[in-house]
Amino acid sequence: MLHANLSTTTIKSGRDLPAIFEDRVHPAGISAGERPENYRALLLPVAPPADLTSDPSAKGGLAGWQLHRVVRHVDDNLAHPLACRDLAMVARLSTGHFCRAFKTSMGEPPHAYVIRQRIRRAQRLMLQTDDALSQIACTCGLTDQAHLTRLFRRAVGTTPKVWRSRWQPVARAN
Asked: How far apart are CA 139 and CA 141, in angstroms?
C-alpha cells in the first residue's frame, strides 16, 4: 500500500525528500518512528514510468521496440558518451526525427533523459558504496565531480555530498 501511494508522487527539482516522506507517509497512519521496508524507494527520484509498451500508431512517438532498445542502450552505456546521433542509430531513425519522437514518447528530450538516468545511478552508487564522488561521477559518464555537483544540484536541489550524508545512514540501516 505504501509503495502504491508513493509511486504516483513525482519529485520536482528542489523538493525536499523528507518533506515528501512526511507529506505522503504520515497521513497514511505510519508513525514517525516506523520505517517502511522499501524505504530506499523514497530516496531515488520517482520518475513518470516510461510506457515501454507504447502504441506504435501513436502520432509522432517511438514504436515500442524502439523505446525498449533506446532505454536499454542508455542503461547499458551510462558510463560512456551518449549522443543523440548514437541513440538515433539504435532506434534506426534520423537524428532529428528521433529527437522529436523521443520527446513525444518520453515527455523530455533525449539529453534530459540521459542526465536524469545518470543522476539516478549516482544516487544509487552513493547509497550502496563508499566510493569517492569523483569516482561516482566517472562511473556515471560525467567528466568530474564538479560536473556531477552542478547537474545533481539542478536536478535534486542539493549537492551530492549533503544528499549522501543525509540519506546513506538511512539506507544502510535498512
From this structure: 6
The pLDDT confidence band at residue 60, using thresholds 50, 70 and 90, is: confident
Look at residues 88, 84, 81 and name the one whose alpha carbon lies nearest to residue 62.
Answer: 88
What pLDDT shows up at residue 85?
A: 97
Q: Is the pLDDT of residue 26 over 70?
A: no
For residue 54 the three cell numbers come to 507504447
Assign residue 45 a region: left if phi > 0, alpha if psi is -120 to 50, beta otherwise? beta
Query: CA nearest 174: which of 25, 37, 30, 44?
Result: 37
The pLDDT value given to residue 133: 97
What's the confidence (pLDDT) of residue 168?
A: 78
12-19: list long-range contacts, CB under 8 Å, 24+ apart. 13/154, 13/155, 13/156, 13/157, 14/157, 15/157, 16/157, 17/42, 17/43, 17/167
Contact 99, 109 (CB under 8 A): yes
**Spatial separation of the C-alpha atoms in residues 8 and 153, rounded to whole Å:** 23
The Cα 19–Cα 2 span in angstroms is 16
pTM for this model (two decimals): 0.69
